[in-house]
């Protein structure tokens, strides 16, 4: 009997050792597997090591700043809560980290990623407009911001000189990138719609180490913290990979439902000028399509879509996104119009009810309305933010002068509802000063 007990104890010990060895090998394989999970932000080209794109030891465009990839790897537990908790990041070592995996899901629900990534594509005469957009993002945002600026080569030096002149806060960084498209089809992509506009389609493939990203057009202005739209990432369900607003609220004036010659999302289509993306999910997803019964990944589907629909699309890359989400509607989170408020929401009468109730959160001055006299209400907001100097009193230097200018636009359709242009802005300024008073 005693011999039997010894044999059983020995077998049990061997079983435990085998189990521990299996766990360690699994953890090691997860560590070495490429793209096995979210990449640590310290290895991101936009990490603090890549702070700004000027001389004196600052990183070079695009490939700059890997950060210290090896530092504190097992201490980092920044796994996005939408990733399965057993899928460790590929650059996190297996030692100890594997045993922490079961706790990471709840950890990330209460400790979300601290850095917000914002991307913009600037070509031609868009330098001033882009800088004004970046200023608006900096004014109210709470968490650290990382800007990814894709621009033509001749604009890089101007961006460096301007941004280094007013970005002095440690929680704001930027990285400049060249405009790049797949070599075999670069010319075709660049001439699609406006120059460089389709660059946004390739962001998940270029920024491979960025987990989530907010893309905005150059003509966007933030009237509340970027943190608030960033928080929509936490509202995605298990199938959603991106968030956008409808193209129109009123079908009677909608473009897609009246003129489109291709599939589009929902009743009136979607507008891609403000696009929040979980890029880890985008890179992993296989998309349904009308070209083949086989589902295709993001990098595989773009060119076939362009070849099939290039004679039928009017708005370029936005049309391609509409086609993709028409076939994969479960993958899109739709946020209200006040997060992407455009002239169409007021020039034919006010038709964004959320903005009427709470104000405009993100202003999108498409069709060049910041630079002509067709929509003076939009231009007044743009000029106010462009002329604001960091450190000045926001009430006296921004809000009050803006209100005076907006009252002068009451003869226009958008000017009749000018209160919606300052309602949220007033609250954002009040909240900012309240945060400062609390230290």
From TrEMBL:
This is Glucoside xylosyltransferase 1. Residues 34-64 are annotated as: Disordered. It is a single-pass type II membrane protein. The keyword S-adenosyl-L-methionine does not apply. One of its GO terms (biological process) is protein O-linked glycosylation via N-acetyl-galactosamine. The lineage of its organism: Eukaryota, Metazoa, Chordata, Craniata, Vertebrata. Its main location: membrane. Pfam families: Glyco_transf_8. Belongs to the glycosyltransferase 8 family. Its EC number is 2.4.2.42. GO terms for molecular function: UDP-D-xylose:beta-D-glucoside alpha-1,3-D-xylosyltransferase activity. It catalyses: 3-O-(beta-D-glucosyl)-L-seryl-[EGF-like domain protein] + UDP-alpha-D-xylose = 3-O-[alpha-D-xylosyl-(1->3)-beta-D-glucosyl]-L-seryl-[EGF-like domain protein] + UDP + H(+). InterPro entries: Glyco_trans_8 (IPR002495), Glycosyltransferase_8 (IPR051993), Nucleotide-diphossugar_trans (IPR029044). Keywords: Glycoprotein, Glycosyltransferase, Membrane, Signal-anchor, Transferase, Transmembrane, Transmembrane helix. It comes from the Eukaryota. The keyword Membrane applies. It is found in: Membrane. Residues 44-53 have a biased composition (Low complexity). GO terms for cellular component: membrane. Glycosyltransferase which elongates the O-linked glucose attached to EGF-like repeats in the extracellular domain of Notch proteins by catalyzing the addition of xylose.
């Amino acid at each position: 009997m005693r011999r039997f007990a010894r044999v059983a104890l020995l077998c049990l010990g061997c079983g435990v050792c085998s189990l521990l060895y299996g766990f360690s090998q699994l953890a090691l394989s997860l560590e070495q597997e490429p793209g096995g999970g979210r990449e640590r932000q310290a290895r991101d080209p936009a990490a603090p090591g890549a702070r700004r794109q000027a001389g004196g030891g600052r990183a070079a465009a695009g490939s700059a700043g890997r950060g210290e990839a090896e530092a504190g790897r097992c201490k980092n537990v920044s796994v996005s809560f939408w990733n399965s908790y057993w899928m460790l990041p590929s650059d996190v070592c297996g030692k100890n980290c594997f045993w922490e995996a079961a706790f990471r899901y709840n950890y990330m629900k209460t400790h979300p990623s601290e850095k917000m990534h914002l991307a913009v594509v600037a070509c031609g005469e868009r330098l001033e407009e882009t800088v004004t957009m970046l200023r608006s993002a900096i004014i109210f945002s709470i968490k650290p911001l990382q800007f990814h600026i894709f621009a033509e080569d001749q604009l890089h030096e101007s961006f460096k000189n301007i941004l280094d002149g007013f970005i002095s806060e440690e929680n704001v960084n930027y990285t400049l990138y060249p405009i790049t498209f797949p070599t075999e089809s670069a010319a075709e992509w660049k001439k699609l719609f406006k120059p460089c506009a389709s660059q946004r389609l390739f962001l998940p493939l270029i920024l491979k180490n960025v987990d989530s990203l907010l893309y905005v057009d150059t003509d966007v202005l933030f009237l509340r913290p970027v943190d608030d739209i960033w928080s929509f990432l936490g509202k995605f369900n298990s199938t959603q990979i991106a968030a956008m607003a409808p193209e129109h609220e009123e079908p009677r004036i909608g473009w897609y439902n009246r003129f489109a010659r291709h599939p589009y999302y929902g009743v009136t289509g979607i507008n891609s000028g403000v696009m929040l993306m979980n890029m880890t999910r985008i890179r992993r997803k296989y998309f349904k399509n009308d070209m083949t019964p086989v589902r295709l990944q993001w990098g595989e589907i773009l060119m076939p879509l362009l070849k099939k629909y290039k004679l039928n699309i009017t708005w370029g890359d936005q049309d391609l996104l509409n086609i993709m989400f028409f076939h994969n509607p479960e993958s899109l989170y739709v946020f209200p119009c006040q997060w992407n408020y455009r002239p169409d929401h007021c020039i034919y009468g006010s038709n964004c009810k959320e903005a009427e109730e709470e104000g405009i959160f993100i202003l999108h001055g498409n069709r060049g309305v910041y630079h002509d006299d067709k929509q003076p209400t939009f231009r007044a907001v743009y000029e106010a933010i462009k002329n604001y100097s960091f450190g000045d009193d926001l009430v006296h230097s921004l809000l009050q002068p803006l209100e005076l200018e907006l009252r002068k636009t009451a003869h226009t359709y958008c000017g009749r509802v000018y209160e919606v242009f300052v309602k949220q802005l007033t609250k954002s300024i009040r909240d900012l000063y309240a945060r400062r008073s609390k230290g």
